[in-house]
Amino acid sequence: MTATSPPVHGLLWDTAPACRVELPDGSPVRLVTRYADVRALLADSRLSVDKSNGNGSWRGFSLPPALDANLLNMDPPHHTRIRTLVSRAFTPRRVEGLRPRIQETADALLDAVAARDEADLVRDYAGPLPVAVICDLLGVPEADRADFRSWTDTMLDPPQGDRAAAARAIGAIHAYLEKLLAAKRADPADDLLSALIAAREGGDRLSEDELTSLAFLLLFAGYENTVHAIGTGLLTLLRHPELPRDSPQLGSTIEELLRYEPPAPVLLRRFATEDVDVCGVVVPRGETVLLVVGAANRDPEAFPEPGEVTPGRAGSHLSFGHGIHYCVAAPLARIELEIAIGTVLRRFPGLRLAVPEGELRWRPSFRARGLSSLPVLLT
């Protein structure tokens, strides 16, 4: 089924592949949009994620220092050290072991709405499912999970008129994670936090701030991106009922949904550590670069007829990144999406939108692509 790429993508590919713009917060940045350029720059060591390499013009989202010492703000060798330690704890066995619990949680959430005629699949399903998965992964006790979700929702979508709400939520999460880490250190369990505490490489271990920051990163990225991917994935499938959705084919459909509607169309900012030539445009040292995977994934030079949703197509999307910062939790995200989307389709074959598509509400963000709600009729 055919859709069209946003017109601005074509304009940027053709005339301004490294375009200088100003973000809503006033930060001047350079947008890079062509697939080949984005992929190459994701693996280019001259682009740093360390904010100390910027020229000071980037404003962006700030965190307390104890939450900032994570993989998204580190270059090698610090990034290499922590990624190695994380990989020793975030094993394929641990990720695969979550599958039964993810399925159980998805079924329980859908059981709660099955008796109704209508549901909001963001509020009732896509939102609570990733929080439950992350809580299972980190080892958050059941009694604390309602608070955990409330803080997460407030952090990502603070109430209008309360500018301090997000900061309070971040502070509450920080305090809670410190308490949880202390409990895991005193009484280890079979969860990722306990494994991260125990992980070592040549006698090296993660510091307290590194542990807290990693836990926060898993919460932040694993929640927001998965919520958006479930919601937009289901919407795309409702638009295109002809797409393959049976279990043997669902994996390839999920990959195409990720290409077509990446939950984070603009990846983490980078800073040029020296002058970098991009398509004949010199990006000066210290300038902020934003790599727009939402445009790169629709580049016709990389994906013929990119506005079509075509499961099984050749080529690799960039929605999980590329290079040393490729998403460490990508295997878990794929399992979550296959279970989350597949379970809805299996249980509610008559699923359809409850409102005209033009009335759907989207999160106001240049960085994330996600629905605020997805009202559906279940039968």
Automatic annotation (TrEMBL):
Top-level taxon of the source organism: Bacteria
CDD domains referenced in this protein's UniProt entry, alphabetically: CYP107-like (cd11029)
Pfam families (UniProt xref): p450
PANTHER family reported for this sequence: CYTOCHROME P450 YJIB-RELATED, P450, PUTATIVE (EUROFUNG)-RELATED
Any GO BP: antibiotic biosynthetic process
GO function terms (MF aspect): heme binding; iron ion binding; monooxygenase activity; oxidoreductase activity, acting on paired donors, with incorporation or reduction of molecular oxygen
Organism encoding this protein: Couchioplanes caeruleus subsp. caeruleus
Keyword presence, Oxidoreductase: yes
Family affiliation: Belongs to the cytochrome P450 family.
Protein name per UniProt: Cytochrome
PROSITE patterns found in the cross-reference section: CYTOCHROME_P450
Keyword match Lyase: no
Keyword annotations of the record: Heme, Iron, Metal-binding, Monooxygenase, Oxidoreductase
Signal sequence residues: none
